[in-house]
Amino acid sequence: MRGSYWGMAIYVFWEYLAGAAYHNYAPLFFSQKGFAPGQISLLIGIGPLVAIVLQPLWGMLSDRSAYKNTVHRILLLGAACAVPLLLPAQGLLAALGAVALLSCFSTSATPMGETIVLEHLESQGKNFGPLRVWGTASFAVGAQLMGVLVGDAPARFVWLCAGWFLCAAAASLLLPRVAGHQHAKRKTSWKPLLNRKTLLTLLALVAAMQLTQGLYFSFFALHFTGDLGGSKVLFGAAGLIAAASEIPFLLLGDRLLARFGVRKLVVCAAAMMALRWALLGMLRDPNWVLVSQVLGGFGLIVPTFCVVKHIQQTVPAALKASGQMLAAVITFGIGRGLVGPLGWGLSRLFGSIAPIFWAMAGICAAAALGIGLPLLRAPEEPCSAQQKAGR
Q1: What are the φ and ψ backbone dihedral angles of 81, each rounded to 5 degrees?
Q2: Residue 52 in 3-state DSSP?
């Protein structure tokens, strides 16, 4: 079963289940431990800052290892062992330390796994979108399950996250073995990636979008259950709707990419994210907020899918893992890393959460105009030699 479609699907399901558990419910967990919204924003933002430092290192180790799978499994097991440390952490500094340690592993696990899966699919001439649907399905299931299972017991959140990371590590044994392309060869520097101006402009736009998505993860749970009075079960349903709305794009993503190209899709996604955040700032009925979650399918999945595919198609084989990690550093690291200080500042400035969504809408709209329009005029980057050979 190793390397088969179903083996990879099982891995993708469990890996995204762990991510859904943490990203959706970490703010509620920290709120139950007595942290204020601004402090919670700092706790959510520390992970991406750690990623800025460590993701290039993990990418380099992966490219230079005999098999990328070894480094990937270390990341998943490390995350499973680090999650329980959130429970005894008391006070802001201790909690920041625990989250930072968890982030040493968890922030790089997903891009590493995607690199392994994409390289194998590319060698088989198969599309990534239908397989990624399993991640969306598990994200939806995870959001709903956590709403039902966690309740008011913070320990359940921690142990569920740890258990699901362990399941992902076990499922990673089903992934195909993918060699590190620099192993036993002349080492290749990752610095030429910085000369790809179109790639860097694309990553800058996605970083702005990731910033707003990080603010969403920091404040939406508190806003929905606190300000709007929605239950945890309804909050889980909101996550389920947002995740399920991604499925149509994933099923059609490769065809849409071939027809419209990466840049048009990402700029359109930025505009749709601006609309989604504006609606969240406006709506006061939890039921209408649930309806607005259908816009999630036009948001973050589009730029993340496009970035992964763009790197896989244009970056040389020896630098693919480093390219994916560079993307994670700029979009997730720098983009999400600004969530902590910006979220803390906005919470102090406005004194309530709803206006923060309007600020998020403004960031996305400005990015679509200020970065997206130049991106549409940027020259095409050549395909890698490996991609050309596959045509």
Answers
A1: -75, -25
A2: helix
